[in-house]
Amino acid sequence: MRSLARVRRPRLLAILSAVVLAAGSLVGAAAPASAAPAPQTTPHATNGDDLAPTPPMGFNDWAGFECNDAMNEQLFVDTADEIVRLGLDKLGYHYVNIDDCWMQHDRDADGHLQIDRTRFPHGLKWLGDYIHSKGLKFGIYEDAGYKTCQGAAGSYGHFQTDADDYASWGVDYLKLDYCYQPTDQFPGKSAAEVAHLVYHEASQALANTGRKIVFSESAPAYVCCSGPNFTDELGWLADEGQLWRYGSDIADNWDSVLENYAEGNSPGLAAYAGPNHWNDADMLEVGNGGMTTNEYQAQMSVWSVMASPLLFSTALKGASADTIRILSNADVVAVDQDRLGVQGTIVKSTGDVDILSRPLANGDRAVVLFNKGASEQTASVTAAQAGFTGHARSYRLTDLWSKQITSTAGTIAASVPGHSATLYRVHRNASPGIPPATVVGVDGHGYAAGTSTPTTVTLTNHGTSAISDATVRLKVPAGWTATRTDRRPARAVPPGGTLTAHYDVTPNTPPPGAMLHLTGSAGYRWHGTRHGVSGGLDYASPTPYPSIDAAANNVGVTDESNPAPGNFDGGGNSYSAQALAAAGLTPGASLTHDGLTFRWPSAAAGTPDNVAGGSRKVAVSGTGTLGFLGAEAGFDTGTVTITFTDGTTRQADLSFPNWCCSDTTGYDIVATADHRNTQSGPANFGVQYRIFYLGVALPPDKTVASVTLPAQSSIHVFAVAAG
């Protein structure tokens, strides 16, 4: 699902109806409800059986390229070449799929789709043949409605013609989106009933070609992720195709990964997954540059445990070593492709950490310790909680990223950095020659510059045999001091035992925005060999940035001659500096609204000009009202923490409407830009992209000293003022 707004569900339907006027009305979101029980019988899809016994893997261009100039024939040729050269095909990356924008706006006189020959000069039959010559499979995109999401000709009313064309081009995979839904053709039918009629017709058309074409259905993404329409669609999707997008469009940021992950764990959804019928969490963003290596690795880990299709969306030609390492991890891919086909589910949640477990065909379990938060956490779950039954003398833990193998008596644990995941393959009954699993945790809180704070470092032995000569140490950030308050010699730690060291830690004044790390480490001997393990504690600097300009971490405004640095929405789009200037917003300009005087960011176009997530703390002084100028690339509500000069704090909600095409009731629009910049230059003329104001009333006897802005990267703040 794609729109001019590039936002995420569940409110995207409203965006589409406001921006792109479909011939039929779009269906609204339904009231929340839990998913109904999944059917127990093996489904037989209209378009064919046994077309996707494991989740499809390969490439889809949309997340990384959308409709930019690089989305062309050469991209798919290069991708096919690189998949084979790197050996990714041997791991199961078989599909090379084209998304939207491959076709012209209109059909030809005979009703056939017309290929964009600028992007694909040799045509799609030639491209399909080339991909097949590499031993790979060819996928394509269309829409079940009147138009594709980008406004080209849709398939409704032409399903058989289009299916016959796909077959003649050698297509092996069809992704069928659901913009511009033809609900006006079926009065009295529910959204799910209309979708079923439409997708059944498309599936039958594929079957009629006689070619085996995997069918990906996007209908449930438009009613995600609860309510009767969502439930009803889950009941028939496997009868028509092999996989379905159930939720939001993925974007190259951590908040988006968490949103799709949460939707994938909607109540009851996992039961609908299995061989030839998969819940699709959307594309892997690995390698696209908007996240850290740990975040990309975490997405790969969690998607694999959730049995999601693995479709990367980055250019393999020139990709980094980390990108290739993540995509080519055979042990992680084996979890995703496990033939039992059971989707993993959450078995334990504590704070920011979720633990998911997935049963595997040989009796093992894949267990992922998923830290959604920014700070390192020690996470643990018992083998019984993870789903193992009966007695076992021990369990073998294989870390599928580090490749370290340890044994545990029953506790599966790790110290997991922020925005990261530890993925284990757990096997019942470890051999005696495997070293014990150990974990180090650091505990301390309330750090203040110049003040001593008690801090402990604890080594825990989760194995079935003792370790000896164990020592524990703490390393603190530069400028801090750590004084050990106990003096214990190295000693043995029995199975299930711990060794704790106590310190008094005194920090200095850290710089604004710093995430400081305290590292606990332990060394010990087992069976004559020295081993080591470490863990840590993260501490966010309490020092505020002197201004919001200094805190800026996102490029939201670009010059029309150079839009490349912009990425307001996670898709590379941004405000046009020229369009904002026409509305009165130029770098450093003064703006008065609601009695407050704001200064528009002084940053030059194409440089960081707003704060988008990260819980950044900004100095601000004033009384009466605290005001914010901003917009969203989504529909989130965040929390701001207001710190007053007397040391007290108060929290308040902060949200804005989406930057375009959304209901603005209750918000003041302070500026409107006529169009925006895409990676290809200025576009979407006539569409309004807005800047909004939101004010928060302050207690009459309080003076604000600083404000900590929201954690969500979809909420963009350009200016803050207090009066």
TrEMBL record:
Keywords: Disulfide bond, Glycosidase, Hydrolase, Signal
Superkingdom of the organism of origin: Bacteria
Residue ranges annotated for the Alpha galactosidase C-terminal domain, each copy included: 350-426
Molecular function as annotated in GO: alpha-galactosidase activity
UniProt-annotated stretches for the region Disordered: 34-53
Catalytic activity line of the entry: Hydrolysis of terminal, non-reducing alpha-D-galactose residues in alpha-D-galactosides, including galactose oligosaccharides, galactomannans and galactolipids
Alpha-galactosidase NEW3 domain residues: 449-509
Signal peptide as annotated in the record: 1-35
Single Gene Ontology BP annotation: carbohydrate metabolic process
InterPro entries to which the protein is assigned, alphabetical: A-galactase_NEW3 (IPR018905), Aldolase_TIM (IPR013785), GH (IPR017853), Glyco_hydro_27 (IPR002241), Glyco_hydro_27/36_CS (IPR000111), Glyco_hydro_b (IPR013780), Melibiase_C (IPR041233)
One matching Pfam family: NPCBM_assoc
EC number: 3.2.1.22
Keyword Transport: no
UniProt similarity note: Belongs to the glycosyl hydrolase 27 family.
Protein's UniProt name: Alpha-galactosidase
Species whose genome carries this gene: Actinocatenispora thailandica
